[in-house]
Write a structure and sequence with these properties.
There is one protein chain. With 112 residues, this protein is mainly alpha-helical. Helices cover 47% and strands 7% of the residues. It has three helices and two strands; from the N terminus they run E-E-H-H-H. Strands 1-2 form a two-stranded antiparallel ribbon. Helix 1 crosses helix 2 and helix 1 crosses helix 3.
Length: 112
Amino acid sequence: MTMKSALAWTLLATLMGSAGVAEATTGGLYDPPTRVVRYGDLDLSRNEGAAVLYTRIRAAARQVCQPLAQVASPSIILLNQCISHAIAHAVGDVDAPLLTDYYRMTSMSRQR
């Protein structure tokens, strides 16, 4: 599988705190949901391509983690941790230097 045809998987840390990798778009207790983020149309050797992919990954992470907001006592901290975890794993899976740099810059600016 080439980098262009590879898929970035966003992961959901389950409510119990463990993480799993599943190919399914929905899952049960032991197969947390994931979203496939396609990026074969992007040039990841350019900053613009990395920025677009990051935006796609972030949107997928929010979709995957959104069910946490439906919990009886939702925690914004738990929701943000889920999103951050999903993004970090997807960026790591893609393993593209410009995407990693963009992720680091974005993460640092959000911490300020």
